[in-house]
Amino acid sequence: MRSRLPPTKPFLGKKIDGYPNHVIQNLVGSGHNGHVFRAFDESTESKLAFKVVPFNNLAVDKDQQQVYLNEAKKANVLQHPAVVKYHNVVPYLVPDTSIKCVVFVCDYVEGKNLRDYIRQKRSDIDISFIEKFLLTMFGLLYELKQRKYQHGDLHAGNILVAISDFDMDAQPNFWVTDFGIRELTGSTADTNDYLHIARILKELLECLDYRDCGGCDRYVYNILKQDFLDRHLTESDTTIDPLACNPRALANKLRSLSDKYQTTTNETTVAKLTTPFDYPNCEQIGNSNLLLKNLYSDRLLGLSDIQARSNLMLTGPRGCGKTTVFRALSLEYLIATNNDNPNDINYIGIYYRCDDLYFSFPRYKLPKRTAALDVPMHFLIVTLLATALEQIGVWAKKYFPNEFKKKEEALVADLQGLFGWVQSGSPSEGQLATIVAKLKKERKRAAEKQRFAHVLSQPIKGYFEPGIMIEACQLIRNNFSFFLQNRPFHFFIDDYSHPKITQELQANLNRLFMHRSADVFFKLSTESPVSFARHDIDDKKFVEGREFDFINLGLRYITGKSNRLLEFLEDLFSRRFHEVTGYPIQTLEQLLGSKRRNENETARAFRKKKDRENYAYKETVAAMCSGDIHYIIRLVSRMVDDYGGEDALKASNAVPRIPPSQQHRSIRAAAGAFMESIRTLPGKGPQLTEAVTAFGNVAHSYLLYETSTNEESKPPHQASRIEPYGTLRLSDEAQEILNELLRYSVLIEDPRGKSSRGNIVPRFYLRRYLIPHFHLTFSRRDSLQLENHQIESLLCEPKTFEKMMSRGDPNQEDLFLDE
Fold first, then answer.
1. What are the strands of the beta sheet with 173-176, ordered from one edge?
2. How confident is the model at residue 293 (pLDDT cuts 50, 70, 90)?
């Protein structure tokens, strides 16, 4: 809480200025910043809600009445029926005290807040309740998006549930309160409304017992969990998920689920592909390990480095396979797909996705007292240990039943001693399942305690420090040495990215993740190099090559050998083509053909306006890949659709099946669509688009009018990367834009570049998928070499940069505008 709230008794029976007939009758509830009372006017039998906030909990000037009114007006502008309207905001002195407050006068809703409803009426929550809640929220989000506004602090405490006794169908109605309160109280909460709704959806789904759900409800539950919760609501990158931040599309999908279930003939059928391009990323596959097995290619670039015995930071563009490879290396996946033969297992891989961490510790801030630092650490440790013990138990009982039975009780006793847990004497106490169940209960205890981490009067005891994790893993290996002695633990921690996992939470957990051990290794995936905090709460800096290895899959794909990349993509598509019964194409070469690329010839063709098939064949598709496999799958799918679909493929025997000219047009269109999707990214999307457009146009002008100095044949200058002349020093504004370009992998950083002056500087590659949009080549020979002020101009004043740097006649019509 922000500060001690005033006592409630002095308010009861009182009135406030401007509302002489409304008497405060009872307390409705209290939150972080104030109390909510119910006021009643007997003359008209009308009710109002008075939200009382002490001045000390307001961030704005205490005497600026107009500021309060302006914030209240924001809610009244909204037309959605779920918005609770404001009537007034007035100052108030608590009777018989010196406590000054502000009273927000609102409509009164006869109901409970959703947090209390979940606690008191958990059994009344079903799939239809959740669907109604989501549709209400999507409708509200649609209006907020149109008005370029956001609530900013949605949670179960400021969403009200009202079910009228006079409603024949007893349907729940949902109301949203506290618009404008976040700004007035100076809350630093994460303002992403979609993430807030995802967290509430998780709480609601936890109210259901999946085993009690009927056929249609099970189907909807799975979609809500695997699609809405794990992907649509937690994804902010609209280039990777068209439904992200798209309330209309989300509502349409939700409304369609019942009809889609009716067309499903067998709800227990293992997920299958209907086209080779279904499930382009791992999140869409959900929990179908068998489908993942059929689609996963072990020719992924960088695989051996990911499996090495070291801590790892893995990054790369969204859709590059980080989640896929982490899941495919886990013991859970190997068991589910019968690939768990001990002779083939060199380590015990445990997969953990950080959405779970976000939902339990959203908007995490470091507590003021040291004891509370270990609350999220405890949550993480018990979660990882419970998962590891559960999966090891399944695997050991299958292959080493005798050794497992001999050592099970001793391991449990050792772990209880390490944790300081008192033995209960229960007959089942020595079983691994018992300690797993207790570890899972500890998860809940830690998550609930976090709500009071900042309340000094709340005791905090019995929460694990980082060292417990390493000691527990050593105990597991020592007790099960017969089958674990030479198998270390690899914990695959997926999507460890801020702002979702805040920098302060990362700094806290890095005390464990950056610990170096011979038996326990942590593999972290993050969406970009700038979304990982390379320090801990003691401000210890973590150094690549010492505490962790660093792999950027995007850079691996750009700078790796083209034949290895092509082999990987051919294997990936071959698996997909074979997964669809009777599909008329079996290989990528059949579909697209093959022709070795000569980038110098392509550049000369651009100058002469020749060869209208510059972007075609399987080699071009491979060259476009910056690790963004998701996009490559969508690209090939688009080529097939543009050609006429599966029917057109069946009707022809030509090789390649899709003509190169059609491939060229589809590739150019896909690159253009990707450029447009960058513009729609939340926040700085338009600025990112302008910056990358300026770079692309300048690089294209160099190709037309400048000659490379690196070869005797003097080919056209072919730049698709930025190379600083010296150490990069940017303004805060420019650095923020550069970080966003890296975060969304519009640019991909090579931190080990070397400038023409001999300095070690980062180089920034244009994402290969965009190269066809700007009529560039895939050559890696040349760079745009820029001084600091030029890079600053590119990021902050892109039009000025383009005018200053472009070669040739800037008024000359582009050679390719007619395409």
1. 112-113, 159-162, 173-176
2. low
- Nearest C-alpha neighbor of 109 from the set 185, 28, 184: 28
Give this prediction's pTM: 0.76
Q: What gap in Å lies between CA 231 and CA 223, rounded to an integer?
A: 10
Long-range contacts of 583-589 (CB under 8 A, 24+ apart): 583/276, 583/646, 584/646, 584/649, 584/650, 584/657, 585/276, 585/649, 585/657, 588/618, 588/621, 588/636, 589/618, 589/655, 589/656
In the chain, DSSP finds a helix count (H) and a strand count (E) of: 31, 17
Ordered DSSP codes for 610-678: --S-SS-SHHHHHHT-SS-HHHHHHHHHHHHHHHTHHHHHHT---SSSS-HHHHHHHHHHHHHHHHHHH
Could you identify the residue written with the tokens 């002695």? 485
Q: Check residue 377 and give left, alpha or beta (phi > 0: left; psi -120 to 50: alpha).
A: alpha
Query: What is the predicted pLDDT for the residue at 182?
Result: 55
Cis status of the peptide bond prior to 499, with omega within 30 of 0 = yes
- DSSP type of residue 150: -
Both tokens assigned to 140: 């509200």
* Dihedral of the alpha carbons of 616, 618, 619, 625, in degrees to the nearest 10: 100
Of 359, 127, 354, the closest CA to residue 222 belongs to 127
> Which tokens is 82 given?
């779920």
- Residue 473 to residues 369, 422, 757, Cα–Cα distance (Å): 28, 20, 49
- C-alpha span between 53 and 105 (Å, rounded): 11
Q: How far is CA 432 from CA 393, 394, 416, 436, 802, in A?
A: 7, 11, 11, 6, 65
- Let me know: does 696 contact 776? Beta carbons within 8 Å: yes
Closest CA to 355 of 145, 201, 132: 201
Give the tokens for residue 363: 């908007």
Distance from C-alpha of 476 to C-alpha of 464, rounded to nearest angstrom: 17
CA angle 679, 807, 723 (to 5 degrees): 65
Q: Calculate the CA dihedral of residues 616, 619, 620, 625 and round it to 10 degrees.
A: 150
Report which DSSP code applies to 544.
B
Contact 57, 185 (CB under 8 A): yes
pLDDT in tens, 208-237: 877 677 778 888 888 898 889 888 898 887
Residues 676 and 48: their CA atoms lie apart, in Å, by: 47
Place of tokens 């947090």: 115
Contact 528, 742 (CB under 8 A): yes
Buried b (16+ CB within 10 A) or exposed e, 722-746: bbbbeebebeeebebbbbbbbbbbb
Please give the Cα distance from 762 to 749 (Å, whole number).
6
3-state SS record for 267-289: CCCCCCCCCCCCCCCHHHHCCCH
Helix H or strand E encompassing 697:
helix 685-705
C-alpha dist (Å) from residue 5 to 25, 41, 815? 19, 26, 69
- Write down the pLDDT at residue 181: 58
518, pLDDT greater than 80: yes
CB 498 within 8 A of CB 426: no
| Three-state helix/strand/coil letters over 6-65 | CCCHHHCCCCECCECCCEEEEEEEECCCCEEEEEEECCCCEEEEEEEEEHHHCCCCCCCH
- CA-derived radius of gyration, the chain: 30
